[in-house]
Each structure stands twice: as C-alpha cells, then as structure tokens.
C-alpha cells in the first residue's frame, strides 16, 4: 500500500521533515518574567515524543511590552535566553524532533490577564499592566486601553528586537523561525486597514501596510543563519467588514516568498472583537488552498483539524502541504502515533516506549531512525 500523504517527508527550505504534521505554537501563560519554567519542560518534553514532523514553541515576545500577558514567554535578554536554553537542551537530549520558534509582538492586544483569570486587558496604571503599542492609537475594544502609535524610533526598536531574538534563537539551536503576522498581533495590525489608520509610508495602500511586516521579515531573515528556514504565520481573513481578506493575504504571501520565506502557515481572525467567524472542521482550509495557489513554497493548513482521515484528505488533495494541530494534540499528545496506526504508516519513537507498541501495529515505530539521529 502506498504511504499516506500525511506521512510522506517534506522539505522546508533546507530542513527535511519526516511527515506533514506540525504541532502549532500554543501559549501556556506559565513563564516567570518572560523566562520558561518547569511547566514548559514538561509540556514541550512530552510533545517532543509525539512523532510529529515539527514542534513549534509558543508565541515568544521579542520585547517585554510585546507579551500578551505578564506570564508569556520572551526572548529579549540573557535571562530569557538561558531559561529557554535549559528546556531546549533537555528536549535535544531525548528527542530528534525539529524545533520551530514563533516570534511575536502582541501590539494593542498586550497587557492582558491570563485566560483563566478572564483575559481582560489591563490599563497601563494597573499593577501588572503596561502601555500598549500599535500602528495607530485605536483601542482593541470600546473602553479598553488606547495603544500608543509607534513612531520611527519605535518601529526601529521593534524591528531590531525581532532580529535580536532571531540571533538568540540561532544560538539556542532552533531549526525554524516563524514570524507571527496573524491573530491580531502587531504585524497583523499593520497589515489590516481596520487597525492601521496611519497616513505615512506605513499606512493606506496595501503596499504601505505590508511595509513594516516585510521590514521585520527582512531583518529576521538576515539575522537568522541562511541555511535555516524562516516562515510566517499569516491571516487569510479578518472576518470583518473593512478588514483584510484573502486577496491581501495572497499579495503578502507573494512578497514574502520573493524575499526567501520558506513556508506559510495560514490562519485567520483575532484582529477585533467585532469579527464574525463561521467556524467548523476545515473552516480555514480554503484560505490555505488560495495561498497555495499563489506561491510555490509549502503551506500549512490549520483550524479544527482533529481527525486522521480529515488531515490525510487535506494534504492528499493538495489543499495544503502540511497540517497544524493545536487543541487536538493537547488533548491527545500521541495523535501522530494514532494517525500512523490508523493510516498504515509509521513514526519515530523512543526506545523506552518499545513495549507500548500494540500487537496489531508492530511496524508503527521506527526505533532505528530515532536511535541513529
């Protein structure tokens, strides 16, 4: 029987992945002043044994004010770099899984409580709050904190912080950088006419709105080793009248590809509470399909992908080259094992788990590859 498409290897730039399953970045809101903790060691450690093709570390702020919450992970100084290094070293000791790191700046969505405490935005004068920054002084919600519009010096500081975080990531041995230009965070805020009301070279036309995100990409691409790929998470739709849509996303995707972007992860939404998302299984796959038609680099589809045959169909029909899993893999950290068993494929697994292989799936694990890596 032919190997399922989901378990065919794929090349992302110079990096070869064993299969088309990507573990998406998922914020844990469990850092200490930007520093990873034992929670991240446990969380990422067991996901590193999942058999996925790529594990993406959660959205990591490039500046303290770029965090969503006070408990977000950061990579802006030697202390945050050392804390992340401790976690990565442990993963590297026990797993060969390639690691991606998502770099982000929350912009006007920053200074918020953690989700399980309500997730409300905190004003700058709150004990744990701070002044938020954005393309324009447009609040995220009525009555919410008004961000400060970035001036030239602020733009340079943010751009340089992304580049410096990429250099730190390179020192830590990260295989892939992913820039977060979706979900309503700073780079997405520049791209959308709904949140970008600037009247200078960074606002107005799509060309102008793309300018700062592309400057950030160029800076990161220059800072990160040339042989390691840089990818971007983009938004296919703001799901709101007056926002950006798939045509804007396709133009942005083409501009990124021309600058050396190695892959695109296509999501949507998150820009504004007024959004009207019609969700359900595969609801974002059409966006990935449209971006795949616009560029020749690999495209990742995301959004309520949870079933094995569903994932196989997405890559098998060519709607996307890879699938990204988030909530599904939190609920079932061995999702790739079970998908391989269901589809008649195999995954890499640790020798320590040899005895867990069910009798009916004696070829599920490829232990020799794991041991030789």
Q: Gap between N and C termini, in Å?
A: 27 Å
Q: Please, how many helices?
A: 11
Assign an overall shape: globular
**In angstroms, what is the radius of gyration?**
20 Å
SSE ordering: EEEHEHEEEHEHHEHEHEHEHHH
**What do the pLDDT scores average to?**
95
Note poorly predicted spans: none
Assign a percent range to the helix content: 25-40%
Summarize the structure.
The chain has eleven helices and twelve strands. The protein is of the alpha/beta class and 373 residues long.
List the topology elements.
Elements: E1 10-12, E2 15-17, E3 21-23, H1 38-47, E4 54-61, H2 78-94, E5 99-104, E6 133-134, E7 148-149, H3 152-171, E8 176-181, H4 186-191, H5 206-223, E9 230-235, H6 246-258, E10 263-267, H7 285-294, E11 299-301, H8 308-316, E12 322-325, H9 327-331, H10 335-343, H11 367-372
Parallel strand pairs: 3-4, 3-12, 4-5, 5-8, 6-7, 8-9, 9-10, 10-11, 11-12
Antiparallel strand pairs: 1-2
Helix pairs in contact: 1-2, 3-5, 5-6, 6-7
């Amino acid at each position: 029987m032919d190997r399922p498409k989901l378990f065919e290897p794929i090349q992302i730039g110079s990096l070869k992945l064993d299969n088309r399953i990507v573990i998406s970045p998922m914020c844990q809101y469990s850092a200490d002043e930007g520093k990873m903790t034992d929670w991240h060691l446990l969380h990422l450690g067991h996901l590193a044994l999942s058999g996925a093709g790529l594990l993406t570390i959660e959205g990591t702020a490039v500046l303290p004010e770029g965090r969503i919450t006070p408990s977000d992970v950061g990579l802006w100084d030697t202390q945050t770099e050392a804390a992340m290094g401790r976690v990565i070293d442990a993963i590297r000791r026990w797993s060969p899984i390639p690691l991606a790191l998502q770099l982000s700046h929350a912009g006007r969505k920053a200074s918020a409580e953690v989700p399980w405490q309500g997730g409300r935005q905190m004003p700058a004068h709150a004990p744990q709050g701070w002044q938020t920054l954005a393309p324009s002084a447009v609040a995220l919600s009525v009555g919410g904190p008004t961000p400060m519009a970035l001036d030239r010096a602020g733009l340079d500081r943010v751009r340089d912080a992304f580049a410096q975080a990429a250099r730190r990531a390179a020192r830590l041995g990260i295989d892939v950088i992913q820039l977060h230009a979706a979900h309503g965070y700073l780079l997405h805020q520049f791209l959308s006419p709904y949140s970008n009301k600037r009247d200078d070279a960074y606002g107005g036309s799509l060309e102008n709105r793309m300018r700062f995100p592309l400057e950030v990409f160029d800076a990161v691409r220059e800072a990160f080793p040339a042989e390691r790929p840089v990818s971007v998470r983009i938004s296919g739709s703001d799901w709101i009248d007056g926002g950006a849509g798939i045509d804007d996303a396709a133009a942005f995707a083409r501009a990124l590809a021309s600058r050396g972007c190695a892959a695109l992860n296509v999501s949507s939404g998150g820009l504004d509470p007024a959004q009207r998302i019609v969700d359900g299984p595969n609801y974002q796959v059409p966006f990935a399909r449209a971006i795949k038609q616009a560029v020749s680099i690999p495209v990742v589809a995301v959004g309520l992908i949870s079933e094995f045959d569903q994932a196989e169909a997405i890559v098998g029909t060519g709607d996307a080259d890879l699938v990204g899993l988030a909530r599904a893999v939190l609920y079932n950290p061995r999702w790739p094992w079970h998908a391989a068993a269901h589809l008649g494929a195999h995954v890499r697994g640790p020798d320590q788990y040899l005895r867990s292989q069910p009798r009916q799936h004696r070829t599920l694990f490829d232990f020799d590859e794991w041991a030789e890596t």
